[in-house]
Amino acid sequence: MTTFHNTYARTHEYIRTLASRGPEALQILGGLAQDHEDRFVRAEAVVALARIGGPEALQILGGLAQDHEDWYVRGEAAAALGHLGGGQAVRLLEALAQDTDEYVRMAVAEALTRIGGPEALKALEALAQDTDEYVRMAAAEALAQAGRPTL
């Protein structure tokens, strides 16, 4: 195994161990998601935050989704919000639907699809008018599955 693979395997195991500690690891994982030099480590920390869940994880993920400089982290945080679900997640995703990056908006559409419900469908209707073709297609597909096709 190469040095790169050894380092990645150790980091992966470290994040899994942290996640297994539950809520007490949220701040450490949030720090990794915010500041680690490797975007894939940041993304893995985001996934671990979603696995732990709860109001504090939702708050950390919402901050990452709205404020992180890396579009990849914002998109992963949007996806994680979709796994957590709930009204607060939908409200955070609605705001994130205005992100400048189409990958992030695609992740928002997929997250809203996962959550479902009237609030999520309303946000998806707005995304069905997005400037990016793939975002529009993702939103339209979700709306069609919910019995609300777009024209």
Brief summary:
With 151 residues, this protein is mostly helical.
The CATH topology is what? Leucine-rich Repeat Variant
Number of domains: 1
Task: Note the main sheet.
Answer: none
- Text of the CATH class: Mainly Alpha
> Can you tell me the CATH architecture?
Alpha Horseshoe
| Terminal-residue CA separation | 53 Å
- Rg is 16 Å
Tally of helical segments: 9
Fourth-level CATH superfamily: Leucine-rich Repeat Variant
Percentage of residues in DSSP E strands: under 5%
What would the principal axes of the Cα set say about the shape?
Answer: elongated
Please state the structural category. mainly alpha
Portion of residues in helices? over 70%
Low-confidence stretches: none
Mean pLDDT: 92
> In terms of quaternary structure, what is this?
single chain
The counted number of beta strands is: 0
